């Protein structure tokens, strides 16, 4: 395959096809209003992306419950009060010619009380003095994910992406280290995966036949077991429960460090699975046209652009114009990001990312 293959369309199990193989990764920019509603800065960011050549744009992690918040100024989708801003975002993306999705998020035990979060651990041993969620509370949060998906469809999004990565609540329940429950949501791999599967199945039943569902999965940290995640993913592929899997890798080229698949490219553990009509993409240090093209050769159907899209908003257009395109070297100055159209709130968020913004730059 060559870089030109990145510009071939890609059909999805439900709804419209992707016009190319570029998806904007869900980025938490911390520039929303304090009540979770989309700010003018959110709208400007989305307007930039909508003109940047992506096939599908994912809006960043949005809270399905007010208490599930993990970041200051995190976007919300837990209230109908959020609908006007969300509708504007979905409309802007559609008018720009891209498909749209919004990422559904609950922080679980990582919810931050300082910004209104209510920690909701799977286990009573995770956080001192905080009891594990009851079965009924797990079911309530499950239903909140489903209600948020219905709200996303009402706002005009083509789909949602279910956040199952980075130790947030669905990822937490998958981990035997963070989930020692004895109810139907704990114990066996099947039980620990039940929360995720009920969320995905509930969204499919509650939303229209053309509504698209993505699932973001990470493999490292939080006691997650690669072999178990592969087993769960294989079932989701076989049952065609989602339209696409988004593998959130720190580095798309990384190797498995230990266990059954030690030494293999981590990506290959999943690309080798039969996936029927489900599509698979990966994020992780994709900074050049060549690396994006290589990922198609390695078995991906599409690529997710994150940091490279912050550095240069129209990454797909740059690649289309120059098959040898490479992202600017990091760290960059705050002024570089400012001139590119990033808000001061977003720039402040990026200062917290190691090696992204040059220290001391204004």
Automatic annotation (TrEMBL):
Cross-referenced CDD domains: OYE_like_FMN_family (cd02803)
Every NADH:flavin oxidoreductase/NADH oxidase N-terminal domain range: 5-320
Keyword 4Fe-4S: no
GO MF term set: FMN binding; oxidoreductase activity
Entry keyword set: Flavoprotein, Oxidoreductase
Keyword Flavoprotein attributed: yes
Name the record gives this protein: NADH:flavin oxidoreductase
Organism: Pedobacter miscanthi
């Amino acid at each position: 395959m060559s870089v030109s293959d990145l510009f071939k369309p890609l059909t999805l199990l439900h709804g419209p096809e992707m016009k190319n193989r570029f998806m904007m990764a869900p980025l938490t920019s911390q520039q929303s209003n304090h009540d979770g509603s989309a700010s003018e800065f959110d709208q400007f960011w989305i307007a930039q992306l909508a003109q940047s050549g992506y096939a599908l744009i994912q809006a960043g992690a949005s809270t399905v419950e007010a208490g599930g918040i993990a970041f200051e100024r995190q976007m919300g989708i837990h209230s109908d009060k959020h609908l006007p801003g969300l509708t504007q975002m979905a409309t802007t993306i559609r008018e720009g010619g891209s498909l749209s999705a919004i990422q559904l998020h609950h922080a679980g035990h990582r919810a931050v009380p300082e910004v209104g979060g209510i920690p909701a651990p799977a286990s009573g041993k995770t956080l001192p003095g905080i009891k594990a969620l009851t079965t009924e509370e797990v079911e309530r949060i499950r239903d909140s994910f489903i209600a948020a998906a219905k709200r996303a469809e009402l706002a005009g999004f083509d789909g949602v992406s279910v956040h199952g990565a980075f130790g947030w609540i669905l990822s937490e329940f998958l981990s035997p280290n963070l989930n020692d429950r004895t109810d139907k949501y704990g114990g066996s791999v099947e039980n620990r995966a039940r929360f995720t599967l009920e969320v995905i199945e509930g969204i499919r039943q509650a939303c229209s036949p053309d509504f698209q569902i993505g699932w973001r999965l990470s493999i490292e940290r939080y006691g997650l077991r690669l072999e178990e995640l592969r087993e769960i993913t294989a079932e989701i592929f076989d049952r065609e429960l989602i339209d696409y899997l988004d593998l959130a890798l720190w580095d798309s080229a990384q190797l498995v460090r230990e266990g059954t698949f030690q030494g293999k490219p981590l990506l290959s553990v999943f690309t080798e699975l039969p996936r029927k009509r489900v599509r698979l993409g990966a994020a992780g240090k994709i900074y050049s046209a060549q690396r994006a093209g290589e990922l198609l050769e390695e078995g991906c159907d599409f690529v997710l652009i994150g940091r490279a899209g912050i550095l240069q908003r129209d990454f797909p257009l740059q690649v289309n114009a120059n098959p040898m395109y490479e992202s600017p070297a990091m760290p960059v100055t705050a002024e570089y990001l400012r001139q590119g159209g990033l808000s001061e709130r977003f720039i402040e968020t990026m200062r917290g990312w190691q090696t992204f913004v040059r220290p001391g730059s204004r």
